[in-house]
Specification:
By secondary structure, the protein is mostly helical. The strands form two sheets. It has a five-stranded parallel sheet, sandwiched between helices. Strands 6-7 form a two-stranded antiparallel sheet. Helix 5 links the parallel strand 4 and strand 5. The site of flavin-adenine dinucleotide has 27 residues, from helix 11, helix 13, helix 15 and helix 17.
Length: 508
């Protein structure tokens, strides 16, 4: 009996579990460009174009290997525009009575598949290094789920950077050698760029016509769209940028959108690259003496530590995690997140490169946009949906822990032991944004004061009951308590004025 084999847009790996479970001789692969996915949030046009182009090439590669593939293009007349709808339609055409699907990375889609009239057999996605069972076992009985301890387990399990059962170099983590302020001039021209081929050009025309008003620049389009290109991109980065990755991991420079970052998350999350091959490439560079341990350890920690941990949090906590709002934040996301006017240079730079590339690196996401949203008390779900829409690497499973958890503290401290908040000082130290800003980072009050400086104290005071007892925040509260009451009053009233302007839809 024929079965359908569902391959979603972020499951473009030849070894993905549903394909491994299927029989090429009798089963039919189903892939579909559908509006239910493409409009679940207003995705960046580059993200939609990347996925559709990569899906089309992947389908062609499967056909070349002898698979029967029923592929639905967005503008196909019979398109039902939902994944379950396409499964029902293809089941009718082929007589299939069953579907095999690799578990999607979003509860919305998992439940849609569970409700599909054609029974769907979901198999766990084993492209990740930690299965649900492994993460749940690790999490069981722990008071706090701290990434660093999970990471050590993953190092032991994978053997990456391990020597005789001990971490290479004697330490698990070399971050004390990382995170330097930005270099004067950088010696890396950024990620490898690919000229659009015929498949990409066709998709670009489709996306331009179908999603004309989504936030984001569709062109110039330079992404890799198949695994061969993604591997060339990876090799280029390992040779030219990995050695300095750790040193400048937290740096931000005007006009430097990528610095030494790998820009692989889009490819990894869609399945064009595999987490293991990426770690092995980095480790091989270290063993060959081509990259220092601080860089390679820092990078491997992002992949087998943070990435796996964040996914574990999503599936361990379930759908209710996304609705959490521990700090009771309800403010609307300001227009400047969608390119609206702002005098805040750090936000303007981060949003502009997000619009152009559907990319921002971790510190821009965490300490610029994330920090601002948290300090200003934006509703966490709106923050989550913004990140989900604007980044080409964004899927629910990888967003939730980063937005609801890491940046917005909406989970009440599952991911972060204290909120990631800072005044303008941190941005000033790690970037050159403040040099070109309408506000002064040195100014703490008054019309030209950096908004981060005002909102930082206001946030701490609004949430004093919750955070004053946190030993890691005691110093901040002590500093506030030493300020003269008149100064405290000025900061609070100027912060209130700033928030009122945001509420009124005025530019800040
Ligand atoms: P590099 O800095 O070169 O790091 C290498 C890889 O490590 C990344 O490609 C990624 O796969 C992994 N990684 C590092 N940190 C994390 C993390 N916190 N969570 C998961 N993976 C991590 N990452 C996504 O893949 N998709 C997202 O939608 C996403 N949204 C984020 C939202 C917020 C608010 C924050 C703070 C972080 C988010 N991240 C997300 C994590 C991280 O910012 C991106 O993975 C990274 O910026 C991608 O760029 P890169 O490939 O150049 O990463
Ligand atoms: C993100 C996305 C978009 C924009 N479009 C499609 C699509 O048309 N067809 C498809 O199969 N997948 C798409 N995706 C990826 C899915 O939304 C993704 O599989 C789920 O969010 C689970 O991670
Ligand atoms: Fe951002 Fe403040 Fe610096 Fe301006 S002064 S760039 S608002 S941190």
């Amino acid at each position: 009996m024929t079965r359908l084999v569902l391959v979603l847009g972020d499951q473009l790996s030849p070894g993905v579990r549903a394909l491994r479970e299927a029989d090429k001789a009798r089963d039919v692969v189903v892939m579909a460009e559908v509006r239910a996915e493409a409009t679940s949030v207003p995705h960046h046009p580059k993200k939609i174009a990347f996925l559709f182009a990569a899906m089309r090439k992947f389908a062609a590669a499967l056909e070349a290997e002898g698979w029967q593939v029923r592929y639905t293009r967005l503008d196909d007349p019979g398109n039902t525009h939902s994944i379950p709808g396409e499964l029902v339609r293809r089941a009718g055409e082929t007589g299939a009575a069953k579907v095999i699907a690799t578990e999607p990375g979003e509860f919305r889609l998992i439940s849609a598949l569970q409700d599909c009239p054609v029974p769907v057999h979901l198999v766990e996605d084993d492209r990740f290094l930690a299965s649900h069972a492994v993460f749940d076992r690790w999490a069981k009985g722990r008071k706090a789920l701290r990434m660093e301890y999970f990471y050590r387990e993953m190092r032991r399990a994978t053997g990456y950077l391990m020597e005789d059962g001990q971490p290479a170099g004697g330490k698990w983590n070399y971050d004390t050698e990382n995170r330097k302020p930005p270099p004067e001039g950088i010696g890396y021209a950024g990620p490898m760029q690919f000229t659009p081929d015929a498949v990409v050009e066709e998709v670009l025309a489709l996306v331009a016509a179908e999603f004309p008003s989504n936030f984001g620049a569709l062109t110039p389009f330079w992404y890799a769209t198949d695994s061969g290109q993604a591997r060339r991109h990876l090799a280029h980065w390992v040779t030219h940028a990995l050695p300095r990755f750790g040193d400048y991991q937290d740096a931000m420079l005007t006009g430097e959108k990528f610095l030494y970052h790998s820009v692989i998350s889009t490819y990894l999350n869609a399945g064009l690259l595999d987490a293991r091959e990426v770690c092995e490439a980095a480790e091989a560079a270290w063993r060959a003496g081509a990259a220092p341990l601080n860089a390679v350890e820092g990078f491997i920690r992002q992949i087998i530590g943070w990435r796996e941990y964040i996914r574990g949090i999503y599936f361990h906590h379930g759908p209710e995690y996304l609705e959490r709002n521990a700090l009771g934040h309800t403010r609307d996301l300001p227009a400047m997140f969608w390119g609206g006017e702002t005098g805040m240079r750090c936000i303007a730079e981060t949003v502009a490169q997000t619009r152009d590339e559907a990319y921002a690196h971790h510190i821009q996401r965490l300490m610029v946009t994330g920090n601002f949203a948290l300090l200003a008390g934006i509703a966490p779900r709106q923050v989550h949906d913004w990140y989900l829409a604007v980044y080409s690497d964004a899927y629910d499973w990888v967003m939730a822990g980063n937005t609801i958890g890491m940046t917005q503290f909406a989970d009440g401290g599952v991911v972060a032991s204290k909120p990631y908040v800072s005044s303008g000082n941190y941005i000033s130290k790690m970037s050159d944004y403040c040099d070109h800003c309408r506000y002064s980072v040195k100014q703490k009050t008054g019309p030209g004061a950096c908004p981060f400086n005002l909102l930082y104290w206001d946030f701490l005071m609004r949430h004093r009951d919750r955070f004053a007892g946190n030993p890691r925040m005691a110093q901040m509260y002590a500093t506030w308590d030493r300020m003269k009451p008149e100064r405290q009053e000025t900061i609070r009233s100027e912060a209130a004025g700033l928030l009122a302007r945001l509420d009124a839809g005025e530019a800040v």
